[in-house]
Amino acid sequence: MQAEKKRTGVVSRFFRHRQHPIKMIDYTSRNLWLLLIPLSKYLIASRFNFQDWIRTNWVDILAISGIFTIAVLRWIFVRFDIDADGITAHTGLFGVVRTKVYFSEITTVSFCQSWINRPFKAHTIYIETNARTVSKEDVRLVLSQRNADILYRFIGYDERDKPNVTYSPRKTHLMVFSLLFSSALSGVILYGTFMFEAYKIVGIEIEQELIARVNGEFTKIDERFLRLSETIPKAVLLLGGIVILGWFISFLATLVRHWSFTVSRSKSRLFVKSGVLIKRRHIINREKVNYYDLRQTLLMKIFKICSVTLDCTGYGKSRREISALIPITTYEQMNASLKMLVPELPRPRPEIRTGRNDVGRFVFIPIVLCFIPPVIRHFIRYLVSDWHREINSIMAILMIPLVWLVIVKAAAAFNTSVGFNERGCAVSYCKMFQFHKIFLPKSNISKIRITRDPFQMINKTCTLWIYTCGEKEKFHKMKSMPYDEIKKICLREGYIMFE
Predict the structure, then answer these.
(1) Residue from 319, 271, 326, 320 nearest 293 by CA
(2) CB within 8 Å of 119: residues ≥ 6 apart
(3) Which residues, 6+ apart, have CB-to-CB distance to 56 below 8 Å?
């Protein structure tokens, strides 16, 4: 008890003050620097004649000065305190909003240091609970390196609860993980965002110069490529180039984000570290984990590899972050790794599963979707007389994921199941192109719902919905389950079914 008071007293001396001064930049508008560029240009154009410059741009100067003044006032009044039972943040304009988060209710604490904050030795701290708040996070603070390290040790562990088990995947496994979980769409969004911000900076003059240079270089391309472009439709080349570039950007972003991934387990917490450009540290309360998820694609199933994630409020909440516990592993290594990191994990065997007789119900909707591109192609060909080859090529590209979806859903008919034991529940299902196997304690099941459409009533099947607790209610959906068996097992486990 005396050691606890001493530890609290030492920390309090560091934490009863304001955030890192770099927070003032965040308080200003993110696009404020766009106003500073023309102001600087006008100052240079007037050859540093301050009187003419102020006389011409006094409105913009006054607006920017007002924004910076408000930022300084917010930084002065926003403060935070550390007590023995929690952390209190005074936020809002003049610090009138008081938010207290108790240590016992914290689900995840994330320490993030971007490459921009690293020269200033600043960390952004995100503190999360299961409480539903208006903002994205319960408490967000920007602290110095020293204060962030003290808070990490204070919240993370003391002498009685230090990490005793550590797991770190191989670098080659992280490469495969980044390859499998990279999305061309997210990469295109990243690329588009970057180009949009760059366009706002360079302006239209540099853009025109860049286009002129590109056109000049284009005339020097090898004639063999020109002959190839006559054979392959230009629209297909453009679309393929965008997709490949987007996927490559997403691959690099995923790899850099999860590089040097390490997870450690103590008596009551999990400690996750990762990142190169943006370094992240997460402290996860093991008692607040809602469920564990074994994720696979069809190719991963074929090669017998999987990725293990967990659902805990605050972990994996930022953009393009995966809440990984084991980024990627083989079937043989998975059992040993889970016993090491999550020894209390409930793993009941499947009691009810779908099979060969349910394949038709799983693939019916994907097969219907496969007829949409041909119908659209015939409709467009009546409206557009040219570009037939381009239209056919694009429609063929659209057909590939739809055909693959039919194959995945056919495999899902053999990988949908549910099972209970005295400790928890295990469910397996397929959502879009990804297979999930969920392990969750019974205490985290908020409700069970059964739905039936007219066709399911005829076939004596149903759709089982299992809802889990957390900041946001999530559900796990299993289709074409036998109605009588599902009803019997729910009554046996004492759950009230909602139909």
Answers:
(1) 326
(2) none
(3) 42, 46
